[in-house]
Design brief:
The structure is a single chain. By secondary structure, the protein is mainly α. The protein has 21 helices and four strands. The strands form two sheets. It has a two-stranded antiparallel ribbon. Strand 3 and strand 4 form a beta hairpin. Helix 2 packs across helix 6. It is globular.
Length: 568
């Protein structure tokens, strides 16, 4: 009896332990399925993110946390098992075969879709504000005479070239780095009331401190001052490069306008860095308001300074510079209310990381500019009428791209947030949804242009010969829109996972192929060869992007691994 009681007693204890263990496991599973809710400043709906891990004992900066995260032995071991060889064509075909069914699914605007659009639409309006402001400036300067108008056109082309080459890369880098640091801080924060390395006490207020913001603003100030000095001191040399000789009537007004316009370089670069920060916060409304206020001031000052004060094109330059300082002031003022703008010390490694990444994107931007410039040069060789037709087509082609470029921006910010926070399921959903929305947007734009390009092109000229050639380019302008949309969205996805190296090298490679095609096809087929070369340029960008996603190489390993593990 004693032995039976002992057996029964032991069995009861064992059963009780099993039940307690099961209860503990179920409680753990239930708690692991809880999600925090995060709000987007542009959108009231909320989406789920993975809950943060238990608080770390030692505080780390976001870069240190990211490095520690990437060095976890389990993750590395899992990646070695999942990627024992270099990317192959078989891997690419398998991945694309999994990706395409997702894109073919019925299009629907869920919470994530609405959030993407809520970020993209204000960004699209902000991007469109600058071209509209340029049109206003052109309209006022045009009343001064053809020489002044031509001089301003040359000066603005030089200024915009410098801006695209150096300023836009800094904007894209800041967006990604800020979004990444935001995600890492949410993941690693253990006490929002404690002043740690991610918070600073400024004027009696506790403010969030993100190292990427202060680094970006410091670099922006340095780049802006360097641009201002180079443009003002080297205005004469730049005019010679543009083919405006000393005896040209355009030379003096062009140099005068560029010298004054150069004083606006520092606020432009600083404002772009601030815009990148707000984009990293997924707030695109604040930059829209700031840019709108600045452009409105520019439109008011133009007639006052140009005509009332008699400053001519100098008045147009001064009005633009004042508006740029206003935009920078508004953005910095709003940003200062949310985060600390000044770092306690400047991290040399972080500056080096920024400069290296800026260098990569400058090379990428240079590849794009060289390709577009060669296309314009080959079109100009066909004569004034074909060149005028090409100009109409290319301006419409580029203007429409603002919509898909804004969509890429939304994908970049959301993907950077999910990827850096370790929420790879959310990262995959962002990729699927932004590609899906991009494809639908491209098809919609193509249909709109097919129906309305003929009437729309009449707004640019009344020359029947120019219009006839321009309308023959409808297949290029409209037919390439789906490809363009996917290409721009893929750019945003590159930046979202900080895949800057591949983005740069692939663009240089694609640009070289397109340059060779343009040099061969344009002399044979004329304007049709130029348009075919530009279409090839965009199609190769799409192919390079899909290859990168499909081969699951570089930072994309982490995104796709969990999905592959589940499928296995």
């Amino acid at each position: 009896m004693t032995s039976s009681f002992s057996c029964h007693h032991i069995f009861s204890i064992y059963s009780l332990q099993r039940r307690r263990r099961g209860l503990c496991c179920s409680t753990t599973l239930a708690s692991s399925k809880t999600h925090k809710l995060r709000r987007n400043p542009n959108f009231s709906a909320r989406h789920r993110v993975v809950p943060r891990a238990s608080p770390p004992k030692n505080r780390r900066t976001p870069l240190e946390s990211a490095t520690e995260e990437s060095k976890r032995p389990i993750t590395r071991e899992r990646l070695r098992k999942s990627d024992t060889s270099s990317p192959t064509a078989q891997n690419f075909v398998e991945s694309i075969s999994r990706l395409l069914p997702r894109l073919r699914n019925r299009f629907k605007l869920d919470e994530l879709g609405f959030e993407i659009l809520s970020i993209a639409w204000p960004a699209a309006f902000a991007l469109a504000a600058d071209p509209i402001a340029s049109l206003v400036d052109t309209a006022f300067v045009g009343h001064l005479g053809s020489v002044e108008l031509a001089a301003v056109g040359v000066s603005v082309s030089v200024f915009n070239l410098v801006s695209k080459l150096f300023n836009v890369p800094l904007l894209n880098i800041t967006t990604s780095f800020v979004a990444e640091e935001q995600a890492l801080l949410r993941k690693n924060s253990d006490d929002s009331n404690r002043i740690g390395q991610d918070q600073m006490l400024v004027d009696g207020q506790t403010k969030k401190y993100l190292p990427s913001i202060s680094t970006s603003l410091a670099l922006a100030a340095g780049i802006g001052i360097a641009e201002a000095v180079a443009l003002s001191v080297g205005s004469g040399f730049l005019m010679n490069v543009m083919g405006i000789h000393v005896d040209s009537p355009m030379r003096a007004p062009a140099e005068h306008f560029l010298t004054l316009r150069a004083f606006g370089a520092p606020p432009i670069v600083i404002a772009l860095a601030a815009q990148g920060t707000f984009r990293g916060f997924m707030d695109t409304k604040t930059p829209l308001y700031a840019v709108g206020a600045g452009n409105l001031l520019n439109a008011i000052l133009d007639p006052i300074l140009i005509f009332l004060f008699g400053l001519g094109i100098g008045g147009a330059a001064i009005a633009t510079v004042i508006s740029e300082y206003l935009i920078a002031f508004i953005l910095l003022w709003k940003l200062n209310g949310r985060v600390s703008l000044v770092a306690p010390e400047l991290d040399g490694r972080r500056v080096a990381l920024y400069l290296n990444t800026v260098g990569l994107l400058v090379a990428r931007t240079l590849a794009v500019l060289v390709t577009m410039t060669l296309a314009t040069y080959m079109a100009a060789r066909e004569g004034p009428v074909p060149m005028a037709s090409h100009q109409i087509c290319i301006q419409v082609w580029l203007a429409v791209s603002l919509l898909t470029d804004a969509l890429a921006l939304a994908g970049q910010a959301l993907l950077a947030s999910g990827y850096s926070g370790g929420n790879y399921d959310q990262a995959r959903q962002v990729i699927y949804r932004v590609l899906q929305i991009g494809l639908v947007t491209g098809i919609s734009l193509a249909a709109t242009l097919f129906l309305g390009f003929g009437a729309f092109s009449s707004l640019f000229t009344t020359d029947s010969e120019v219009l006839e050639i321009a309308r023959s380019g409808i297949l290029f302008v409209a037919g390439s829109q789906p490809v363009n949309a996917i290409a721009f969205v893929l750019d945003g996805l590159y930046y979202g996972v900080s895949d800057f190296t591949y983005a740069a090298y692939s663009m240089v490679f694609v640009g070289l192929i397109s340059l060779v095609f343009l040099l061969v096809a344009a002399p044979i087929f004329g304007l049709a060869g130029v348009w075919a070369g530009l279409f090839l340029f965009m199609a190769l960008r799409v192919a390079a992007g899909l290859w990168r996603l499909g081969t699951r190489s570089g930072p994309w390993k982490m995104v796709w691994y969990e999905m592959e593990e589940k499928s296995d």
